[in-house]
């Protein structure tokens, strides 16, 4: 339709008013952006809080503290082993591991409280038993009060020595968070693989940071793993080598920044090296890492999965999250933890640090259905069953075999 002169005037007026509205909006937007950038220059925290969802957090400080805290707690566990557990004939004697568990938990929680006072902590142990057993509490305090890192500065960053036995007991109980889907939550297993600890085999001091349900940082100390990535460990027992100075590794990872390791005994100044899973061009050549305890993972099912994949090499059997660490550095390829009891819920402290170390080393970690481990459900992995960890390229093949064996 051709506009008449009056309708063309109103048409022009409409265009003009739209132009004015648009320019006002553009002006307002540019003023807002300028104010924001000025604010973030003046107050850097404004920039980081407002762009938190898009920026990648580096977690440098968290990794640093986690590594030092795990290192210091590992010293305690070694002291406890050599003073208390070595030569223990009965594996049922719980006291050495109890001392190590509580002592390591106290030292690590103190370091978290000192550096990240607002964070929550989900830790395995609770101190009720210690309030009832004064002799046990006194014995733990005797060992804990003298533990320090060689480097005094690092030690004071962790909070220095604990003030008293009472403080130690209070601190142990600060690992009682319910966990969940929001906020910053540390998952702590002061000694993972308690049976391995007692038998002089593999155990691990494990600490992970979960932020809004997602693992961001992990640190694991494995006092009895060989420093040499290629050293063989006894395939059937995972026992330490005779020369203990060749043992002790600290693993860590930050989401998006890779996984590293360094000798555990060499303090904060040692340089870390990057680690990665080894490629598996032919799955029949892969090596399984599996648990020692028949009650924790279904070893008959593991063997059936290996058979389906054509794997003939014997599995390397290790207690603790040393299994995650071993495959992350290429000393083994696949970690299977197929459920024995249908209703057992895995604990978040048994998996958080290992999960991120393997994923950052090029692996994929899932449950038996192929779903990612979900750390947002509280103190347990309530939404998952079992664990399957493997290099990304072959993970799908392993899941197919697991599903076929378990008839899922
Ligand atoms: N039934 C069942 N199924 C699965 N997992 C269980 C079960 N019972 C216990 N646990 C937990 O296993 C933790 C030790 O795991 P490990 O990997 O060292 O055990 S194993 O060597 O694989 O058998 C162990 O951790 P720690 O207590 O820290 O040693 C337990 O939390
Ligand atoms: Mg454990
Ligand atoms: Mg434990
Ligand atoms: Mg336990």
Overview of this protein structure:
This protein is an alpha+beta fold. Helix content is 41%, strand content 17%. The chain has 13 helices and twelve strands. It has helices at 5-42, 44-50, 60-85, 95-115, 128-132, 134-144, 152-157, 165-172, 194-198, 299-309, 322-328, 352-360, 392-406; strands spanning 120-123, 184-192, 204-211, 214-226, 247-254, 258-263, 273-275, 288-290, 316-317, 334-337, 363-366, 387-391. A seven-stranded mixed beta sheet has the order 1-2-3-4-5-6-7, with helices on both faces. Strands 9-8-10-12-11 form a five-stranded mixed beta sheet, with helices on both faces. Strand 5 (247-254) and strand 6 form a beta hairpin. It is globular and about 85 Å long. Mean pLDDT is 86; it is low at 1-5 and 29-55. The site of one magnesium ion (MG) has 3 residues, from strand 2. It catalyses: adenosine 2',5'-bisphosphate + H2O = AMP + phosphate; 3'-phosphoadenylyl sulfate + H2O = adenosine 5'-phosphosulfate + phosphate; adenosine 3',5'-bisphosphate + H2O = AMP + phosphate.
Summarize the structure.
This is 3'(2'),5'-bisphosphate nucleotidase. The chain has 408 residues and is an alpha+beta fold. The protein has helices at 5-42, 44-50, 60-85, 95-115, 128-132, 134-144, 152-157, 165-172, 194-198, 299-309, 322-328, 352-360, 392-406, and strands at residues 120-123, 184-192, 204-211, 214-226, 247-254, 258-263, 273-275, 288-290, 316-317, 334-337, 363-366, 387-391.
What share of residues are in beta strands?
Answer: 15-25%
User: What value does the Rg take, in angstroms?
Assistant: 26 Å
User: What is the tally of helical segments?
Assistant: 13
Structural class: alpha+beta
**Count of beta strands:** 12
Poorly predicted regions: 1-5, 29-55
Mean pLDDT: 86
- Topology as H/E string? HHHHEHHHHEHEEEEEEHEHEHEEH
Beginning-to-end CA distance, first to last residue: 68 Å
Helix content: 40-55%
From the spread of the alpha carbons, the general shape counts as globular
Q: What order do the strands of the largest sheet run in, or round the barrel if closed?
A: 1-2-3-4-5-6-7
Bound molecules: 3'-phosphate-adenosine-5'-phosphate sulfate, magnesium ion
Largest sheet: 7 strands, mixed
Binding site for Mg(2+): 124, 189, 191-192, 350
Catalytic activity: adenosine 2',5'-bisphosphate + H2O = AMP + phosphate; 3'-phosphoadenylyl sulfate + H2O = adenosine 5'-phosphosulfate + phosphate; adenosine 3',5'-bisphosphate + H2O = AMP + phosphate
Pfam family, one: Inositol_P
Family: Belongs to the inositol monophosphatase superfamily.
């Amino acid at each position: 339709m051709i506009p008449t002169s009056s309708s063309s005037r109103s048409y022009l007026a409409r265009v003009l008013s739209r132009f004015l509205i648009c320019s006002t909006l553009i002006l307002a937007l540019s003023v807002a952006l300028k104010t924001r950038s000025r604010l973030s220059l003046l107050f850097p925290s404004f920039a980081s809080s407002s762009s938190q969802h898009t920026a990648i957090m580096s977690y440098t400080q968290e990794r640093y503290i986690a590594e030092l805290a795990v290192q210091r707690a590992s010293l305690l566990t070694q002291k406890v082993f050599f003073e208390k557990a070595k030569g223990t004939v009965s594996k049922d004697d719980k006291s050495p591991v109890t001392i190590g568990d509580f002592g390591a938990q106290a030292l690590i929680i103190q370091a978290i409280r000192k550096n990240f006072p607002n964070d929550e902590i989900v830790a395995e142990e609770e101190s009720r038993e210690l309030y009832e057993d004064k002799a046990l509490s006194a014995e733990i305090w005797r060992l804990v009060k003298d533990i320090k890192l060689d480097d005094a500065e690092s030690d004071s960053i962790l909070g220095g020595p604990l003030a008293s036995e009472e403080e130690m007991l209070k601190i142990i109980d600060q690992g009682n968070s319910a966990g969940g889907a929001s906020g910053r939550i540390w998952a702590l297993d002061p000694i993972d693989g308690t049976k391995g600890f007692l038998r002089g085999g593999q155990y691990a001091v494990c600490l992970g940071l979960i932020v809004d349900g997602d693992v961001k940082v992990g640190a694991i100390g494995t006092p009895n793993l060989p420093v040499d990535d290629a050293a063989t460990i006894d395939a059937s027992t995972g026992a330490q080598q005779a020369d203990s100075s060749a043992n002790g590794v600290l693993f860590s990872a930050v989401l998006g920044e890779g996984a590293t390791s360094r000798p555990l005994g060499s303090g904060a100044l040692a340089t870390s090296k990057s680690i990665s899973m080894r490629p598996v061009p032919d799955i029949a050549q892969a090596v399984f890492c599996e648990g020692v305890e028949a009650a924790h993972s279904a070893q008959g099912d593991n063997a059936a999965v290996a058979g389906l994949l054509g794997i003939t090499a014997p599995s390397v059997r290790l207690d603790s999250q040393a299994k995650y660490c071993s495959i992350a550095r290429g000393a083994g390829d696949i970690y299977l933890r197929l459920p024995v009891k249908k209703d057992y819920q895995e604990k978040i402290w048994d998996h958080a640090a290992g999960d991120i170390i393997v994923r950052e080393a090029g692996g994929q970690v899932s449950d038996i259905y192929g779903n990612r481990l979900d750390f947002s459900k509280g103190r347990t992995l309530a939404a998952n069953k079992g664990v399957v960890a493997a290099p990304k390229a072959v993970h799908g093949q392993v899941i197919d075999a697991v599903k076929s064996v378990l008839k899922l």
